[in-house]
């Protein structure tokens, strides 16, 4: 069985949220001879591809730059990354060099020139938090809403850098408050919430940032705060009126993701803010935050959710009890908490995942599971032949014997065919379970059906006949036995006429 599908909103690209900018500064390694002709590297700067003007701007050497400009050296010679001197000055915070370059070529096109990755000088300044450079570029006509080849805006990069002065400058000059980062569709408010920068969050909200903006996964800034445990961000967004019951494209809610990730304080805040614990978080309408907490082993969160969660999930057909989630996750502490609070150890049939009971699900993993079994039995789980069948299926013969000792019913079976199916497959190990089953009082006639008789070895049939009253054999079974190996006739003749065959107790292996 595959893992029960919890919502998988993981950090990945959204945790990085970088623009992919690499250090374009000095100290870069020299390129190997001929490398430029074989492959262009647009992230690493090579000293022998940079113009003298670009190098002076990179180093902030105003004196050298002024001499070069007086000599008529060009300001628009690009290096291997497409970086021009204006990009070097912006990235390295060379304020005076930037003024000289703009004065030398004050055209709007030069200000907006982009690198091979689509970065203009304003992007580079914003990514580094150089607010003075940002101011100079904006006053010189730079576009506050310019986008990179990945559709990332200067505002997003400034927020990512965490420098509020740069954010204020961009907003003052007309930057779109919902400026995005297209690699994940996050807005500036998503990023500020992720970084838990309260000052920037407040500023963005004041400037009209869309609280319900959804990224490529349908995730809002409030969802981000809940996912990553950013309590302060979550508090600010809730107080601003953001929807606590928003749902991502996969139906996950902020409460669900906070429960899954183990952010206890966020769960407390969401519940106190009327987040709905009964809002189903998947397309099949069975998964709730309580399932996430139970499966992931977050006991404190589970205790918070139990009083608020409707119990129909525990009993209603078509739903899945959180007991299953605790069993699947091997979370003994969560299982005990649920059962202590009245959840059923038997629950409803879990048709979605193909299990008749939590006890059946306990067999899913290879490692030790008796702790789960004992907790279920402690709280009244009812054993049946299907559980014995699972013992045979997974070759858990010690558990098979344990279930017999615990009083597993041996009559009025409803799953005889399933048991026989697994018993046939386990016939090579029959001495590990069959003697115990028969000595516990199981009627061998329940096994003497065509499927069993025609499949098992002669040794097994002979052994079973030691426990069988031959006078009770149905004619069909008599007929099947008669066509088996010739020594069966000898065995049969020894027993015909007796009322009940004496039971010979063979050694139990």
Automatic annotation (TrEMBL):
Residues covered by region (Disordered): 1-34
Matches recorded under Gene3D superfamilies: Ankyrin repeat-containing domain (1.25.40.20)
The organism's place on the tree of life at top rank: Eukaryota
Entry-linked InterPro entries: Ankyrin_rpt (IPR002110), Ankyrin_rpt-contain_sf (IPR036770)
NAD among keywords: no
Key words of the record: ANK repeat, Repeat
Residue ranges of ANK repeats: 48-80, 117-149, 150-182, 184-216, 217-249, 250-282
Pfam families hit by this protein: Ank, Ank_2, Ank_4
SMART domains from the UniProt entry: ANK
Listed transmembrane segments: none
Key word Repeat present: yes
Protein's recorded name: Ankyrin repeat and SOCS box protein 3
Native source species: Chrysochloris asiatica (Cape golden mole)
């Amino acid at each position: 069985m595959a893992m029960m599908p919890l919502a998988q909103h993981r950090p990945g690209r959204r945790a990085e949220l970088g623009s992919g900018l690499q250090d374009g500064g000095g100290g870069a390694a020299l390129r190997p001879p001929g490398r430029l002709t074989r492959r262009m590297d647009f992230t690493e700067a090579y000293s022998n591809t940079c113009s003298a003007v670009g190098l002076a701007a990179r180093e902030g050497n105003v004196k050298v730059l002024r001499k070069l400009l007086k000599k008529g050296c060009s300001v628009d010679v690009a290096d291997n990354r497409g970086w021009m001197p204006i990009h070097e000055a912006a990235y390295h915070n060379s304020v005076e060099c930037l003024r000289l370059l703009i004065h030398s070529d004050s055209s709007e096109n030069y200000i907006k020139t982009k690198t091979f990755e689509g970065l203009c000088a304003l992007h580079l300044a914003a990514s580094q938090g150089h607010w003075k450079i940002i101011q100079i570029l904006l006053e010189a006509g730079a576009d506050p809403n310019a986008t990179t080849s990945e559709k990332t805006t200067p505002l997003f990069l400034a927020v990512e850098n965490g420098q509020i002065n740069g954010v204020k400058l961009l907003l003052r000059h007309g930057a779109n408050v919902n400026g995005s980062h297209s690699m994940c569709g996050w807005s500036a408010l998503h990023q500020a919430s992720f970084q838990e920068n309260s000052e920037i969050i407040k500023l963005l909200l004041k400037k009209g940032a869309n609280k319900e903006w959804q990224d490529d996964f349908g995730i809002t800034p409030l969802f981000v705060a809940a996912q990553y445990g950013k309590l302060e961000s979550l508090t600010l967004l809730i107080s601003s009126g953001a929807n606590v019951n928003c749902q991502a494209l996969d139906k996950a809610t902020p409460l669900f993701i906070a429960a899954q990730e183990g952010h206890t304080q966020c769960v407390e805040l969401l519940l106190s803010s009327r987040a709905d614990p009964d809002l189903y978080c998947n397309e099949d309408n069975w998964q709730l935050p309580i399932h996430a907490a139970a499966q992931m082993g977050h006991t404190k969160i589970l205790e918070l959710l139990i009083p608020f969660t409707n119990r129909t999930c525990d009993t209603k057909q078509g739903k899945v009890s959180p007991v299953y989630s605790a069993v699947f996750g091997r979370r003994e502490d969560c299982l005990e908490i649920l059962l202590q609070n009245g959840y059923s150890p038997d629950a409803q049939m879990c048709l979605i995942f193909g299990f008749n009971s939590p006890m059946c699900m306990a067999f899913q993993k290879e490692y030790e599971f008796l702790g789960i079994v004992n907790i279920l039995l402690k709280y009244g789980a009812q054993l049946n032949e299907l559980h014995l069948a699972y013992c045979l299926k997974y070759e858990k013969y010690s558990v098979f014997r344990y279930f017999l000792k615990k009083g597993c019913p041996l009559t009025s079976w409803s799953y005889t065919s399933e048991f026989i199916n697994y018993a046939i497959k386990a016939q090579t190990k029959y001495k590990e379970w069959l003697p115990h089953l028969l000595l516990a009082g199981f009627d061998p006639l329940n096994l003497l059906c065509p499927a069993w008789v025609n499949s098992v070895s002669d040794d097994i049939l002979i052994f079973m006949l030691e426990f069988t009253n031959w006078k009770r054999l149905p004619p069909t079974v008599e007929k099947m036995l008669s066509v088996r190996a010739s020594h069966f006739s000898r065995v049969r003749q020894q027993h015909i006429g007796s009322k009940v065959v004496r039971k010979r107790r063979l050694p139990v292996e």
